[in-house]
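Supplementary Methods, section 5.1.

A reviewer requested that the exact input to the structure prediction be made available. We therefore reproduce it here, unchanged from the version used in the analyses.
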Amino acid sequence: MRLLIIVAFLPFYITQSSAQCHPDDFTALRELYLNTDGDNWTDTTGWSLVRNNASPPAGCDLGTMSGIAIEYVSTAGNFGRVRQISLAGNNLAGDITSATLDNLGGLEDLFLLNNHITGFPLTTSNKANFLKRFYLSQNDLTVFPMVVTDLNKLETVNLDYNNMSRSTIPEEIENLILLEELSMKSSGIGGVIPTTINELTSLTDMDLSDNFLSGSIPREIGSLLALENLNLSNNQLGGNIPAQLGNLSNLTFLNLSDNLLTGVLPSSLGGLRSVYSIDVRNNMLSGQIPNEIGDLCNLVSFYGQSNQFTALPHIVGGCAQVNELQLWDNQIDSISDELTGLPLLEKLDLSSNALTYVGSGIGMLTHLKELKLNNNFIPEILSGLGSLDSLELLDLSYNEIAQVDGDIGGALSLRVVNFNDNNLTDLPIEFGNLQNLEYLSLPRNNFIEIPEAVFSLSDLKSFTFFANEATGIVPCQLGLMDSLMEIEISGNYFSGCFDPALASLCDDDFSYGTYVLEVDRQNDLPDWNAFCATGAYACPSYIDTVIWERYDTVAWDSTYIWSGIQVPQQHRHVVLPSMGTPTFGYSPGASRSIELPGGFSAEAYTLSIEPGVQFHCPQGSTLEVFSAAGYQYQSACDDD
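The structure derived from this sequence is encoded token-by-token as follows.
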């Protein structure tokens, strides 16, 4: 019974199969094969059918050829006709002829992208075409295929990445009233955008980026109310942005970057109720960014860098969902509370502007992760940074900052801080609270020593400190920072020996791998490599004997410097000669003094202290430090 059923259907199968080889389609596909070097295609499966036969043979089935799809169900009389040609990336080379298109009366999809097709017919006599999707991107076309404008049922035209440098967009483009997608990025098209484009009322996506289009943006684009994506970037379009673009209430993506646009950003853009990205970077736009930008409740990113904007929009209590605002390389001179209506802002870049003032309102941007204000004229650190507990990157390099407020210690998520090229002389002790900090850049400031707070940054991986004014020996605390992988302290005035604690920086990974300790150039230091290899130039062990002359008061606090001499980690005792038992009291971080009577006595008293103690003595006093090897260091004391 099962066999009988199969046999019963066999005549129907033969009828269906024969219907799959329409003679016009056969002729068109044979023409396509022969004119595009078919023998050298990447995949020629089944194409011997048209290569070896001048007309359809018995039992012809075009559906067996790779890249060919047949219409099996149709209400337009195209049953058995070729519906789709999909030969993308198949090494087709040469010209498509008119005969090919003229015969494919049922074709809906033509996918010939990523080949080497050099020409396409300019016209076709096919009046009953069904072509909807036309993909000829990534080929070698040198002239716009005018035949496109005759195919009035087209819904998609994609001519990206060709070389049609001798062509412009034809005015006849207006014929494509059903067109939904027009993409010709990097196609070489030049000239002006025709005003007849206003007839494409079904258009949702238009990408003409990376070409040589000139003239102005036609205001007629504002009548394409179905438009969702508009990309005209990287052309030579000039003049003002037409106010009519504000009519595009369905637009979600607007890119006008890298052109020659002038004038102000029109306030009518506040009508782009659906837009989530606006990109107008690299133009010559000027004036204030309109406040209406704050009315765009769906806006996520705004790119306005490299223009001549002078002021930010006042977005106080706005509804914007903006998380990225790129406005570097403009002429904005201050920030007060303009951006407090952007509670979700994560990236703010106002580098290379003319900023001289940044208000405390910056502290209200509690979702901020990246803040770049480098290359401005900011004279002091911003207040309110301590409220930015999501902040991960802070760049304030190339400003005029002389002091950092301790409030910064509250920004506990900071991972990267760049303060290079300012006027800093110290960092607040609260800076040491930034236990997640991994990269710290302090070059070209006025530091006379590495700030104490740096040694508390337990996760620090990279520390650059070159071209400052630091003196003395290289601090031993650097050798105790286990996470450090890169240290740059060249261009200072370090001198003397290397503390033995620095030997931890000499392991193979640090010296020869990705880890670097740069100590050369301006520093008067011995050979670092010799120290690592043999221990040469290591500082001698201290006997810890201090002899005071003309002494009366000694005071200390919680720093690591001992009268200009680095206190090594193993230093634990100080011997103070005295005529009697001194009054003594000490606790970490506190400041105490010892009152000693005048005169001299050989009697000694030993006081246990921890690293981080600083001693001061009256002006004119002399401090002498001796070692077992006979090393002696003598220094005049400061006047305290």
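The radius of gyration is 38 Å. These observations are discussed further in the main text.
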